[in-house]
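Q: Structure tokens for this one, please.
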Amino acid sequence: MKTATLGVRAPEDPMAGFVPATTAGKPSKGDRISFASPELLWRVLTAKRWELLKAMCAAGPLSVREAARRVGRDVKAVHGDLAVLFNAGVLVRHESGRLEFPYQAVKVEFLLQAASLSAAAAPSARTPRATAPARRSAPRGRAAGCRSS
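A: Here is the predicted structure, written as tokens:
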């Protein structure tokens, strides 16, 4: 089964994972598609685009209209989502112009770690919030919201 692994890998670390893959002695059964940050990965892989990938898994080259039919969505919206996935390197284009997700399975991996102690102790770069204007107090002798009779 050919599997695509979508993951997060810093651009300055293109060889990360190379040594374990070569020392394992097993041929790769899929391709790795890397994103620079988890935020970028989730910006590209929205819920609607994930639905498109599921519909396109091992389906062969599809036209935009056929992909839209499979997910029950508007052709124009699907066209935009397919363009984002193609530009991110997730889909491939055939000579016919149709797009394909040539994998039978998808694996998403990234590591979430606790912030380091030095980063947690650093002062925040955010600007302070503006304070709300002071409220007027109720007139003396009456509680706020009460009427005198």
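A few notes: The first helix runs from residue 18 to 23. DSSP finds six helices and five strands in the chain.
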